[in-house]
């Protein structure tokens, strides 16, 4: 599966997750439904502005649609890892006190 196919796969998953339709997303973005379907069917990327509108309507970043991860997700994962390490250290310290 190439990058454009992955982009559209993510879009379709988000449409399903948000219990909406391609027609509603296309309308919210200001696209003709035929244009939207054409991009999906041909497996081509929308314009940069089109990708922005799609991401905005679906409540994600363009980065997520392109790569499957948000920069913010990576930062959060790193912070969670640090918090878990601190909790483990605190738990060990409490065990020694008891």
Automatic annotation (TrEMBL):
Task: List each copy of the HTH cro/C1-type domain by range.
Answer: 10-65
Query: What molecular functions are annotated in GO for this chain?
Result: DNA binding
Q: Which InterPro entries match?
A: Cro/C1-type_HTH (IPR001387), Lambda_DNA-bd_dom_sf (IPR010982)
Q: Gene3D superfamilies this protein is in?
A: lambda repressor-like DNA-binding domains
Question: Record's CDD domains?
Answer: HTH_XRE
Return the protein name.
Putative transcriptional regulator
Which species is this UniProt entry from? Answer: Leadbettera azotonutricia (strain ATCC BAA-888 / DSM 13862 / ZAS-9) (Treponema azotonutricium)
Cite the source lineage. Answer: Bacteria, Pseudomonadati, Spirochaetota, Spirochaetia, Spirochaetales
